[in-house]
Specification:
mainly alpha, 1 helix, about 50% helix, about 0% strand, DUF1488 domain-containing protein
Amino acid sequence: MRARPEQREAQFTRLRDRIEARAANKYRATEFEGTPPGIVLRSIDFRG
């Protein structure tokens, strides 16, 4: 649902915490990405 232009600032203020939390999670997730993106599994990770 799209907010009318005069309601956007109030909507942003109301949703700001969720927006910032989502952005922080996306940033943290990229710290684990390599080239190409994905999780790298190595045989030494499974040795007991």
